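anyone else get weird line breaks when pasting these?? whatever heres mine. first is seq + tokens for prot A
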Amino acid sequence: MIRFLAATFAVAAALWFAAVVIVRAQRGGAQRAAPTAKASAPIDISGYWVSLVTDDWRWRMVTPPKGDYLYLPLNPSGRQAADSWDPAKDEAAGEQCRGYGAPSIMHLPGRLHITWEDDATLKLDADAGTQTRVFHFGAPQPQAAAPSRQGYSIAQWDVDGGGRRGRESAARARHGSLKTVTTRLRPGYFRKNGVPYSANAVLTEYFTTLTDGGIDYLVVTNFLEDPQYLAQPYVRSVQFKRQPDARGWNPTACMAR
């Protein structure tokens, strides 16, 4: 009888232990299942946005004349390249979009349409030049990625207060920014008048939002690094205002002049 009870207890204990292991494994699996980039976004940058040209009007609203690279940290090679700008040559070569690449497109006047292509991919369409940028979350750059006007962009969310711990900091972490790093660029102009960036340029951008008077704004700050043409990184910031719909959306072709 004692042996029977001992055996029964052993079987029950084994079943209980197995059940505990299964439950813990299920809980652990649930905890390890990271939310998608879309689900974990600390800000919503999707929708339509229109650029606010609050500064640099003379360089953004019109194409400046050749040789106008005021305030730009060009090295001697960069100035030489800018001084040789020839829009007619670009047109003849079918290179009208050299001034519409990732380092310059956000500074051109116009509208943006940002959407989720899937749970790990953001797409940004610009009506200026009819350009499309794609931001990839959680995926390394493929070795075979061909250079292009918009390059290859790797994205991640930076959450405000992400370095703090505890429930209080978690409750406050309701905002942040989108960080993107773009490489694999074709050579182009970050000002339309021939101010150059090379194929080795690296563009780092931060997209964040703020609300003032019930109006949502998108602020984009970018850092362009290019030792071939720049003496130091070039930092710029531009702003956009949210629109409720596609009103004013007007895709236009690239222009070299």
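and prot B, same format (seq, then tokens)
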Amino acid sequence: MTTRLLSVLLLLAFAVANARNDPPPTSDRAWSPPDLPNYERDLAEQRFKTAPGKAWKAYADFKTALRKQDSAAKLVIALQNAFDAVLECYKQGLSTYPEIVSAERNLASARSVSHDTQSAIYTAAGALALSTGDLAPATRAVRSSER
């Protein structure tokens, strides 16, 4: 066995062992090429075992993003009402310009949070579809609604 092939095999064994959290082999006697299918099988089994956890995490992230969007929408409505009230007070001479600027800044910040949560919803929905392997039906549903 050449030195280059041996170093590639040891590097591959280290990568697979690192993915499995096993100690890496110390020499070519500890690991041989026929063991490679066993490492691949073990890695596939580990991925199979962790797939439900990833799907549940993606689902929880999606539900959390939806709840955040509800809260952000309520925050935008409340700050819009506050801005309108401060503006009306300013028109009647009961408020100052810095108060308007502050209310407007708060409203802009709330709108930014609303847009960020919308982005988080799309990201979480994509992660959920990817973790469940359900990307194609979602694409068909979008196409059918466009018609």
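btw re prot B: The radius of gyration is 27 Å. Residues 36-91 form the longest helix (56 residues).
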